[in-house]
Amino acid sequence: MKRTLLATFILAVVSSVMAADYTVAPQVRGEIRPPDQQWQRKIESLAPKKPTAQPEGPRKVLVFSLSTGYKHQVAPHVSAIIKILGIKTGAFEVTSSDDVEVFTEERLEGFDAIVLNNVCPTGPGRDLFVDVLNDPDRARELEANLLKCVEKGTGLVAIHGSIAFQNNSTAVSDMLGGSFDFHPKRQGVTLDLVEPSHPLVAAFEGKGFLHEDEPYLFKNAYKQKNFRPLLEMDVSKLDEKTRSNPSVVSDVRYVAWVKRHGKGRVFYCGPSHQPESYETTAMLRFLLDGIQYALGDLRCDDSPTTNRNPIAEKAK
């Protein structure tokens, strides 16, 4: 009996400490359901009332949501969230599309930022444009339009699965800061703030973030880490099977970052596979601030930090 009480007390103390150091997302409820009105009202109540930075003018944001491969069920939730953030704060106006022809030069010129919402390709080429058009030449043209658009100053936001957008394209990987490699099974994920004083993680008020997610791992341009990391996944707190995989623990695992691509600003937000992760004011503010960064309204240091590998450092 005494041992049971002691164990309960220790668990309560540990839980209290964890709660003090981390913002905890609601528990996953099971099957992901479409974002009904009740859920959207909940998000609206949690969303910030005003933008962190005052927009320098009217801002137009394109939210592109199309997958030819894996269909993330959270994509409709993300679309709804971005619309709510734009309307409630007045920071930007949203146009939604799932038509690849929106990537013509003429149509892209009408937007200040582009949000890729869980855009996942299929097939061996991992090329969304080829999947849709079945025309490699036209596909390269649309990809070039996007690259040029961002280079000239349009902002780019990629959310969760969108890191796989044009996954085998070296140019797109360089622009995004990486490409999708693989992910272990969905599980509890602990995120730490890389620089607690950085403006783009102010939403977390110095705390880390605990939620259930797919622990994404990246390749290609990620190896260079030519970006400013914002959130880091604590691999030591993943499940035992995941920790036993050398390819998981052999490098620092960032899940959110910002970077420049020419004159454009790029924000990658790995969270989340689950709508529950967004049911916190902290994550909603983080997403809003990242979009405002891409728009050029929220200024911050986005210079790449020195590459580091904590695993190798500990081994010395």
UniProtKB/TrEMBL annotation:
Transmembrane segments: none annotated. The keyword Signal applies. Residues 1-19 form the signal peptide. InterPro entries: Class_I_gatase-like, ThuA-like. Keywords: Signal. PANTHER family: GALACTOSE-BINDING DOMAIN-LIKE SUPERFAMILY PROTEIN, SECRETED GLYCOSYL HYDROLASE. This is Trehalose utilization. It comes from Novipirellula artificiosorum.
